[in-house]
Amino acid sequence: MRSRKRYASGGYGQFFLVCLSHETMENYYNTNFQLLQHYSYSLTELEGMIPWEREVYITMLVQYLKEEKQRQEQTARGS
User: Fold this and answer.
1) Within a domain: residue 28?
2) How many of the other CB atoms lie within 10 Å of CB of 54?
3) Looking at the domain assignment, is residue 22 inside a domain?
4) Could you report the per-residue pLDDT of 5-63, keeping only the tens digit for each?
5) Which domain holds residue 26?
6) I need a labelling partner for 50 at 20 to 30 A (CA). Which of 5, 13, 15, 61 fits?
C-alpha cells in the first residue's frame, strides 16, 4: 500500500490560512460585494482567485482609486 507524504508545515492549506488571517469574514464579504457591484467582477472570478492574487488586484485597485482622486482634485483646483 502506498502512503501519502505529510508535511510538518501543514501544506498549502496552512499557508493560505495564514495569508488570510488578517481579513475578517465581514471584510471579505464587503470587499466581494463592492467588487461585484462597482467593478464588474463575477463571484466565480473572485472565489477562483488564489488569496495572494486577490490581494494583488485589490492593492492595484486601491492605488488606481487614489490616483483618480488626486487627478480629480487637481482638475477641480485648476478650474
Assistant:
1) yes
2) 21
3) yes
4) 554 555 555 555 555 566 788 888 999 999 999 988 999 999 999 888 988 999 999 99
5) 11-78
6) 5
Alpha-carbon Rg for the chain in angstroms: 19
Residue 36 lies in a domain: yes
If you count them, how many residues does the chain have? Answer: 79
Structural domain count of the chain: 1
Does residue 1 sit within a domain?
no
Q: What is each CA distance from 40 to 13, 34, 43, in whole angstroms?
A: 29, 9, 10
Instruction: Read off the C-alpha cell for 7.
Output: 508535511
Q: Measured between alpha carbons, how far is 71 from 65 in angstroms, rounded to an integer?
A: 10
- The DSSP string of 33-61 is HHHHHHS---HHHHHHS-HHHHHHHHHHH
